[in-house]
User: Fold these one by one.
Assistant:
Number 1:
Amino acid sequence: MTADDGGIDRRSLLLEIKRTLNRSELSDACFFLKIDPEDLTQGGRSDLARELVLYCERHGRMNDLHQYLQNLHTRRCMPASSLRKCPGMAPTSLMERPPFLCAK
């Protein structure tokens, strides 16, 4: 942990990623975080998860990765009908203003 990572424990983050994301979702995480998967060691899902966490740690992006996972979890837990009630939020602005986080 560094001062820039907000105290995020990389081991816990890695375990959460391995527990919840499949290979395709890991690729989506790279896409939305604007991380080139070619910058990560190629291998299986566990390898990609570990390399993603290490990459984010090296580049001061642990908070971004943590926020992405929180937003993804929120979206998974939110009923589909709630997702349609998010006005003016485009999927292309995921990191700036996630489409699945609605103002209450």
Note: Residues 74 and 100 are 7 Å apart (CA to CA).
Number 2:
Amino acid sequence: MLVIACIIAMLLLVVFHLQRAAERKQIRPALFKPKYTGMSTRERLCAAGLAKEFEAAVQDRDVESMVTILLQAEVAYPESRAIAEAVAQASVQSSSEKPFGSEDG
């Protein structure tokens, strides 16, 4: 039983150190390949074919769906969460305004 507890503790320690190294950008997570390097978030969504899906999530104000879509477009997690929350907040604020390009009359 003690051996199992020691193994679990060692695994947790390794995971912790890997996360810290990734945060300090000493290692590049394998999940995020440099496929979209240099692209804006909008460009990444379009290149990945996810722009319409993201728009639908924005209209639904579904933050979790937005984060998932952004992760598919290789936007890292902390940034994808911040972007999704900012977009959701902006869509709530602008919901009472007229859509862009709408005309009076």
Note: The chain has a mean pLDDT of 79.
